[in-house]
Amino acid sequence: MRFGSSLKKSAGLGLLTILLLGLVAGCGGGTKSAEQTPAAGESANSSANSTEPAKGGTFVYGRPAAVNSFDLHNQITANNAFAIDKVFESLVTFDSEGNIVDWLAESHKISEDGLTYTFVLRDGLKFSNGNAVTAEDAVFSLQRHLEVGGPLAISAKVDAVKAQDDRTLVITLKEPYTPFISELSNFSNGIIPKDFGGVSEEEFFKKPVGTGPFVVDNWDPAGDVTFVKNPHYWQEGKPYIDKLVYKLIQDDSQAINQLKAGEVNAIESLALQNANEIKQGPGTKVLTNGGWVTEQLFFNTLDEHFSDVHVRRALALAIDRAGLTNALTFGYAKPANSLLPTAIPYNANDTIQPLNFDVTAAKEELAKSAFPNGFSTKLLVASGNSTRAQEAQIIQAAGKEIGINIEIESIELATFRERFFAYDFSAMLNSGQADSPDANSIIAFQTDPEGFSKSYWTHYTNDEVTKLLHEGQKTPDGDGRAAVYSKLLQTLADEVPYIPLYYPDILKGVGSSVEGLTVLPNGSLRFEEVRIQK
Amino acid sequence: MKPITIDSPTPRNGKTGALSRLWRTPSLLAGSIMLAVLVLLAVLIPLISPYDPTKQDLSAFLQPPSAEHWLGTDQLGRDLFTRLIYAARTDLTIMVLAEIIPFCVGVFLGMIAGYYGKWLDTVISLITDTFIAFPFYLIVIIVAFASGAGQRGIYITFILVGWIVFARVTRGLTASFRRQEWVASARTLGLPGVRIMLRHILPNVLPQAIVVLMTDMVGLLVAIVTLGYLGIGITPPTPDWGTMIFDGQPFITTAWWLSAVPGFAVVYTGIALSLVGDGLADLWRKK
Asked: What family is reported (chain B) (predicted)?
């Protein structure tokens, strides 16, 4: 019969396909480690011979998303924020520990009643074009932010922003707002020249002029950005490097390979499960810092099942947070008790009484609910994130132990966002992140049912919590404020509109030849003191 | 006059004949043994392994292979060997079940299109040609995405697209048989079309359709695994090779076996099925 030979061909083709699949899955490891061996010898030599680290040079930073805008008042996402903060700087900033320190201001004073903020600008401060920075520039910058609003709008009730003299800025508030000083450290409160230095808004943000250590030299909004050092930078002699390149590398594994090959000096996005590989790599290291992020399991409190506080508590009791953290984060995270990460003041993580793993208690709790015999529900997860995929399976198994049958619904990120913005979920995995080192940042976003996020789309509403939220905003820093937040956080831990799971560290993959890089707790980097060994 | 004798639906020499023919077709023998080993393991796994494929142990995750865990454990502390074989259960069962309906439908439609020709052939060919015009995975992913993740989605997808290949093959064969003398004589004898198709044409198209089926199953298995890998196939906690490859991917440099072993299982099954298909083709050609 005729068909023999053609059939053989198609059978062979099928075979070839799966062989290729097998190769892709199986062979990555072997070849990579072979490539690494010579590099190991090199780096050992260079570190042995190292003397004074060199000045100058170009630092290449691999990032997963392009910079598409420098308009500091209209941006919030990391791709833009961490470029904006290289060009524009604020009156105050936070250090790597999250403490507020003076930056463009040489000093600041807050009046007893918490209504008047006085900032004195540094002497001789200049923009990157050489023009002097005056208090008028600061007034203009803050006024524009107040007008624009934007995603990081100033939430304090500002009465007036005035320039007392060339170097003194006075901001008065209508009512006290304690988080104000910390919110001023946001990149969105950076100082820009008055009237955009005389050019149109659009032109200005194409060629931005600020006080930051770097100046935009070449910018492709869909690709790379090249910065050169600001010759007028106020920290004399800094930055040490001449050039900083933000290189777009969308694929994480490609970014890792380029880091290993020395094509980039550091990469912004390093997944937990790849951290040890980079840490142990011959030419690479991992820089970490405690972050401002809390990974959480969120409940829709309007959901048929999760509106019942006993159900939420039961699931919280069924989840082994320590085990989950241990299995998924490779030592780069701490299990969470409180909503606030430990890098944020008033986090109460050590004093709070959380619902700890206890299956018996979980079953008892579920028995008190309207669904004592369990129920079926869905857990919404964005696809493509392997840590979340594993997390979902752990939660699924925990639910099963107490009779809650959880189906994992893994959907693409854009759809995932659409779904939870529309409250179209029962439970989801997501994280909360602080924008500034103040307890209010996360708490306002996650507990205010009137806010635009509606308690992080959980719709959680508790008048007592709302009252404490506003009280925390007005209470001056100190024990009083600590007491307010500890009470608020305990209520959240008892009613669990969301289960804080763990606090992931900020992780950056960095080449071994890099020194002096500072990792900030918001995930940004400070390059001023970077030196690259030759 | 009758090429039909090349294959009659009844085995001619009984058991010994079949066995000796099997011996003379080494690829069929090898493929059958490979498949039998896998199926046997899949059936007996509850007796072989003391572990539950979905039971997590968060204190014993990512362990290397040992006497206790032959292939080590995955990130959630589940025994990899147990999951691998349970995944064979899942994937092979779906593969077989998802082929039955498309196979029957495809062969049936192909036969009537080829036999009756005219408008019926035009319509069926139009549909098959339209489907063929799209890349296979494009259709698979669109349909799987629309029908939702999980086994239901996989069945819907393959029932929708799987029959095409069988319809094309049987249509072509039937059309060529139709022009041959033995069919013409049957028709002049006044036999009804249905009878001619079932008694005379079907036994002749079936061998080739079965060989195509073997090849197609390889493709289907790869597709099931691919969907699982992409997160729109079998959903956790049900073990599946595709999700296992995905889950192991972050550890490709540190624990390569997590992804490589399920990848190898796909290759193994694919080789087995291809050998069987190849062997059957050889067998039926030799006769």
From this structure: Belongs to the binding-protein-dependent transport system permease family.
CATH number, domain B38-286: 1.10.3720.10
CA distance A246 to A63: 7
What is this model's ipTM? Answer: 0.77
Chain B residues within an 8 Å CB radius of A15:
218, 270-271, 274
Which residues of chain A make contact with B225, given a CB cutoff of 8 A?
21
| DSSP symbol at A131 | P
- The Cα–Cα gap between A246 and A223 comes to 9
B181 contacts: CB under 8 Å, gap ≥ 6: B1
Least Cα separation, residue A482 to chain B (angstroms): 35
pTM, two decimals, is 0.81
pLDDT tens-place values along chain A, 534 residues long: 333 333 344 444 444 444 444 444 433 333 333 333 333 333 333 344 444 556 889 999 999 999 999 999 999 888 999 999 999 999 999 999 989 999 999 999 999 999 999 999 999 999 999 999 999 999 999 999 999 988 888 999 999 999 999 999 999 999 999 999 999 999 999 999 999 999 999 999 999 999 999 999 999 999 999 999 999 999 999 999 999 999 999 888 899 999 999 999 999 999 888 888 899 989 999 999 999 999 999 999 999 999 999 999 999 999 999 999 999 998 899 999 999 999 999 999 999 999 999 999 999 999 999 999 999 999 999 887 888 989 999 999 999 999 999 999 888 888 898 999 999 999 999 999 998 999 999 999 999 988 878 899 999 999 999 999 999 999 999 999 999 999 999 999 999 999 999 999 999 999 999 999 999 999 999 999 999 987
With the C-alpha atoms ordered A194, A197, A198, A203, is the resulting torsion angle positive or negative?
A: negative
Residue with tokens 């290729």: A20
Written as one string, the DSSP assignment of A340-396 is: S-TTSTT--TTT-------HHHHHHHHHHSS-TT-EEEEEEEETT-HHHHHHHHHHH
Question: Residue ranges per domain, chain B?
Answer: 38-286
Nearest-Cα distance to chain B for A285, in Å, is: 16
Query: Is there a contact between A14 and B218 if contact means CB atoms under 8 Å apart?
Result: yes
CB of B57 closer than 8 Å to CB of B78: yes
